[in-house]
Amino acid sequence: MPTPTNPSAPSGKEQEPGAEEIKKNPVVENIQQLGQTNTITGEASNIFCLTIIGQVEGHIVLPPQNKTTKYEHLIPQLVAAEQNPKIEGVMIILNTVGGDVEAGLAIAEMVATLSKPTVTLVLGGGHSIGVPIAVSANYSIIAETATMTIHPIRLNGLVIGVPQTFEYLDKMQERVVRFVTKHSNVTEEKFKELMFKTGELTRDIGTTVIGADAVKYGLINQVGGIGDAIRELNKRIDEKKAADTGGLVQ
């Protein structure tokens, strides 16, 4: 006599869609692909949060074990934030070791040219090409324990064999210096002094500044955290609304 089956009991195949649903969950996909919990789709929040973590990946694909932020993922998100009327401010959170110079400068230029209020928050680190990104917003904040490493541009593992290569690197380095000094309160002389300082970094030249030192040198506006960043961004959003409406804020 056959054993009666319970029609309500799920079969082995019927349990699999649970995993498929997780894989197809748009929030999970955004985290996996873009490192974002949400994309620009018109959520209730008027602030868009963009995270830049790990290494900034540019023209060369990095190994899969590296934690990377791909600049081709960030650029469309910044364009969407600029176009979406429901987004009134953009917050950029950084914890990066640096990476591709041109990709980093591209991100920094886009942030600097947004018409909406922007605030950057450096958590953990904003090293190397992360420095221009950190100073690209209207206002910058750094955590008390966060660090920023300032050093010259270099080609790891390669020998500069011709004068033209050195001149190219020198011009690229000047682009970084001009951008940082234009978008922060640090002077060119001080920034280059930090960049070419010897004896602080092992077998290398440069300087690592921590929290309050970054503010003292004029790189960052203030020491603080996420609450300070949100308050500053909301204040700037209100000021922009008042300016756009002639002082009448609804």
Automatic annotation (TrEMBL):
Region: Disordered, residue numbers: 1-20
Name of the protein described by the UniProt record: Translocation-enhancing protein TepA
Signal peptide: none
InterPro entries to which the protein is assigned, alphabetical: ClpP/crotonase-like_dom_sf (IPR029045), ClpP/TepA (IPR023562)
Pfam families the record matches: CLP_protease (PF00574)
